[in-house]
Amino acid sequence: MLYRLEIENFYSIRDLQVLDLRVPKNVADFPERFSEIFPGSEERVAKAIALFGPNGSGKSTVLRALAFIGWFLRESFQYQGPSLPCERFNDAGSADRLIRLAVELGSPLDLSGSPGTDAKIATAENVGTFRYELHLQPRDGAIRSVSHEALRLKRRGQGKWQRVFERSGDRAVLGSKTFPLAGFSQVIDKIRENASVVATLALFDHPASKVISTATGAIFGNILIDRIDASDQATVHYLAQNPDVVVELNRELQRIDLGVEGVHIVQTANGPAALFRHQGLHLDMPWSLESHGTRSFIRTFPLILLALQRGGIAIIDELDQSIHPLVLPEIVRWFYDPRRNPLGAQLWMSCHSASLLDDLAKEEVVFCDKDDRGRSQVYSLMDVGAVRRTDNLYKKYLGGVYGAIPQIG
Hints:
This protein is α+β, with helices and mostly antiparallel strands and 409 residues long. The chain has helices spanning 59-75, 118-121, 185-188, 197-203, 207-216, 231-241, 243-256, 292-310, 327-336, 393-398, and strands at 2-8, 17-20, 34-36, 44-46, 48-52, 99-108, 127-139, 142-155, 162-168, 219-221, 260-268, 271-278, 285-286, 313-316, 346-350, 365-370, 376-380.
């Protein structure tokens, strides 16, 4: 479970923003909504995190930071662009200032890649927290080099951070017992200044790097880093290749979309096409004539399903786009349900539907706001004083009590 995110000089976030979502120990247990950070941990974090705020306030920036970290760890070695696919804050003072990103999350600590049992994973020595740090150096409008990259761990989340690996600028990469580098000296020399240690070593079968890279593959989202968005076509092709997902999709469509009996994929001269069966209609409807809301839901559904099946993180920007407000809490509830979410997947989402606040606890709510100089601030509702469990979050948010609302006029 991811519980902490730090962002500085990244898109609309200029100054360091720290989002620490650990639920205080004195808060009563809310088991369907909170999860242990790692098995046996006393610290908890929400299974669903929802970001609210005006247009352009920084919600997408927060999600983009998470997506970028996963992309960098997994794919940066193969990237051939002239500059890394991210941006620093757009003012003169930030032009050559470091971009700083960091995440902390709970996880099994064994990076050997050897098969393990649940009993082994649950032992005191094999669970805890990781902290990943990444500093990028902008120069002349481009972001081409890493000045610092490090992964650290705490066994059982206690004590000081211990190095897994660390790399600073042109210095040699330092490993550890958890991240041994014996036999990989020639590969280390091939690490480019704009690529991750993990992304590079994983291609050369470094065991620990392969484990980390595989883990980042369980981040699913609609925030694209370096690819062209062809979401409609890509979704139909994905459904054509994964009939089991179509079965799951039809089960949900019949529950939440009035009149849609199901979708099926047919092959045409131009490739796969999606057709919708509607109650009372003579012919199936093509994708292009289906409602925008239904198509939006179908584009999002595989990402959420994959996260739930693999125990990953679903990062969904504007989850409420064209989706009925009554459907939103239903999707969030999937992450509460231990039958649908047996591996502890987590949802990070942005939305504008303030009515969802009626269905959320304060530990699940994050606000983004922007000042008159274009700088985003990010804060949890837990950081706002005197918020009671019984408060009407929807009413108070729209009343301006928590900030992060549009200023009209």
